[in-house]
C-alpha cells in the first residue's frame, strides 16, 4: 500500500511538472519592438541594458509631457521639445523651469536613435540615457531642476496612471530615476521620422512625390558645387549617424564661420567665450566653434537655426552658406566669421541663380514629415489642462 501511494505521489508530481512546462511553452514570448521603418532600413543600435519595448516607450511618453518631472512642477521635457516644431522649440534659446536661460538652441528630437553623438558639441555623449541626466539634474543652467527635489519628484511619479505604466514596462511598480531615464530614452528613440515627400520619392519609389523644382534642388544639394551633403548626408541628413550596420564615428563637428570676434583673434580663437563649442571639451584651439551638424529632416519646422538660434529663417541659413560664413558688423561679437582659421573647408560659398535658390529651398521643404508632427503616438497623453 505504501509503495502504491508513493508511486501515485510521484506520478502526480510528474503531471504537475509536465503541465507547468506546457503552460510556460504556451505563454507568448515578449514581442520584439516594431520599428516604423521602410523595408530594408537598418535598425538603430540600442543599449543592451535598455532594450526597446512599446510599454517603456509609452511610459516615457507620459514622463516626457509631465511637468511633475521638474523640481518646481513648472516644466516638462516637452516645454522645450514641442511636437509641432518637430520636437524643437521656436525660440533662439531655451528657458529652464526656474527662469535660467540656456546658451544653446533646443535640438530637434528627430531620429535621435540613429545619432552617434548627442547635444551640440560633446563627442563622448553617445547614449540618450546619459544625455538625459543633463536637463534632469544639471544646475548650470537649471533646466528641469530635479536636483534637491528628488523625493518630491519620485512621489509625484507614483500617482495614477504610473503604477500600471511602470508595471507594464518593468514588471512591477517600483519608481526610480534609472527607470525614468530608461523609459524617457525609449520614447525619444521611438521618435522616427521617415514619411516625408523625399522618403516617398527615395525609398518608396513614388516618382511623383517630388516636384521637378524639388528634384532640381535635391540635385544641387548633393552636388560638389554646393557640398551640403558632406555634413548633412545619408538617410538622416547628418554626418552624426550610427546604426546596426554603421557603428563608426565620423567626427561630425564643424565650424561654419558664424563668428570671428575681433577681441579674441589675438588668441587664435574667434567664437564668443560663452560658447566655444567642441573646444570646451577637447581644449584644442582648432576645435573653436565646431558644433555637430544637426539633421535637416523637418528643417522647415525648426527655426531659428544654428547652435545659438542666431539665424532666424531658412532663407537666411542659405544666405550664410552662399556667403561662406557670416560677417557680424554690429553687436558685441563683431568680426568676419568667414575668416576664422578653423572654418570648415566645405563652407566656402557659392553662387546661385534665383531659380536655383528657390529649388534648394523647395527641396529642404520636401524633408517635412507632416505625419511625424501630428502622430498621436508621439502626442501629449495627459488631459488638455496639463
How would you describe what is shown here?
With 386 residues, this protein is mostly helical. It is built from 11 helices and 4 strands; from the N terminus they run ααααααααβαβαββα. The strands form 2 sheets. A two-stranded antiparallel ribbon has the order 1-2. A two-stranded antiparallel sheet has the order 3-4. A hairpin with a 6-residue loop joins β3 and β4. The longest helix has 25 residues. The N terminus is likely disordered.
The CATH architecture assignment of the largest domain turns out to be Orthogonal Bundle
Give the overall shape, derived from the CA principal axes. globular
Q: What value does the Rg take, in angstroms?
A: 25 Å
Q: Give me the secondary-structure category.
A: mainly alpha
Helix content: 25-40%
What fold name goes in the CATH topology slot of the largest domain? Cytochrome Bc1 Complex, Chain D, domain 2
Per DSSP E runs of 2 or more residues, the count of β-strands stands at 4
Task: Report the end-to-end length measured between terminal Cα atoms.
Answer: 72 Å
Q: What can be said about the biggest beta sheet?
A: 2 strands, antiparallel
**Helix/strand order, N-terminal first:** HHHHHHHHEHEHEEH
Strand content: under 5%
CATH class of the largest domain: Mainly Alpha
Q: What does the average pLDDT come to?
A: 90
CATH level-four homologous superfamily name of the largest domain: Cytochrome c-like domain
The total tally of domains equals 2
Number of helices in the DSSP assignment: 11
State the low-pLDDT regions, or none: 1-29
In spatial order, strands of the major sheet run 1-2
Amino acid at each position: 500500500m505504501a509503495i502504491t501511494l508513493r508511486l501515485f505521489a510521484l506520478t502526480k508530481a510528474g503531471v504537475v511538472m509536465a503541465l507547468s512546462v506546457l503552460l510556460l511553452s504556451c505563454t507568448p514570448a515578449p514581442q520584439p519592438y516594431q520599428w516604423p521603418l521602410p523595408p530594408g532600413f537598418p535598425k538603430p543600435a540600442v543599449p543592451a541594458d535598455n532594450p526597446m519595448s512599446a510599454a517603456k516607450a509609452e511610459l516615457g511618453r507620459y514622463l516626457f509631457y509631465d511637468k511633475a518631472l521638474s523640481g518646481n512642477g513648472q516644466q516638462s521635457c516637452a516645454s522645450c521639445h514641442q511636437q509641432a516644431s518637430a520636437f524643437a522649440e521656436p525660440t533662439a534659446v531655451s528657458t529652464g523651469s526656474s527662469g535660467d536661460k540656456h546658451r544653446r538652441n533646443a535640438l530637434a528630437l528627430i531620429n535621435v536613435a540613429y545619432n552617434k553623438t548627442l547635444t551640440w558639441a560633446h563627442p563622448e555623449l553617445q547614449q540618450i540615457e546619459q544625455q538625459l541626466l543633463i536637463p534632469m539634474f544639471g544646475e548650470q543652467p537649471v533646466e528641469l531642476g530635479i536636483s534637491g527635489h528628488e523625493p518630491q519628484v519620485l512621489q509625484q511619479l507614483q500617482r495614477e496612471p504610473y503604477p500600471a505604466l511602470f508595471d507594464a514596462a518593468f514588471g512591477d511598480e517600483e519608481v526610480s530615476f534609472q527607470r525614468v531615464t530608461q523609459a524617457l530614452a525609449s520614447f525619444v528613440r521611438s521618435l522616427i521620422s521617415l514619411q516625408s515627400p523625399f522618403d516617398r520619392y527615395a525609398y518608396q519609389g513614388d516618382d511623383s512625390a517630388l516636384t521637378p523644382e524639388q528634384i532640381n534642388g535635391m540635385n544641387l544639394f548633393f552636388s560638389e558645387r554646393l557640398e551640403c551633403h558632406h555634413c548633412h548626408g545619408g538617410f538622416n541628413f547628418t554626418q552624426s549617424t550610427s546604426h546596426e550596420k554603421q557603428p563608426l564615428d565620423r567626427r561630425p563637428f564643424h565650424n561654419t564661420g558664424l563668428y570671428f570676434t575681433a577681441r579674441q583673434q589675438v588668441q587664435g580663437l574667434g567664437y564668443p567665450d560663452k560658447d566655444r563649442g567642441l573646444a570646451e571639451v577637447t581644449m584644442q584651439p582648432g576645435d573653436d566653434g565646431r558644433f555637430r551638424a544637426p539633421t535637416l529632416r523637418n528643417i522647415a519646422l525648426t527655426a531659428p537655426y544654428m547652435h545659438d538660434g542666431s539665424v532666424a529663417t531658412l532663407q537666411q541659413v542659405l544666405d550664410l552658406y552662399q556667403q561662406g560664413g557670416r560677417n557680424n558688423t554690429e553687436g558685441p561679437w563683431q568680426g568676419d566669421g568667414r575668416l576664422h582659421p578653423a572654418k570648415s573647408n566645405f563652407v566656402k560659398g557659392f553662387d546661385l541663380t534665383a531659380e536655383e535658390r528657390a529649388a534648394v529651398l523647395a527641396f529642404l521643404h520636401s524633408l517635412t514629415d507632416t505625419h511625424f508632427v501630428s502622430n498621436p503616438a508621439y502626442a501629449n497623453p495627459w488631459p488638455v489642462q496639463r
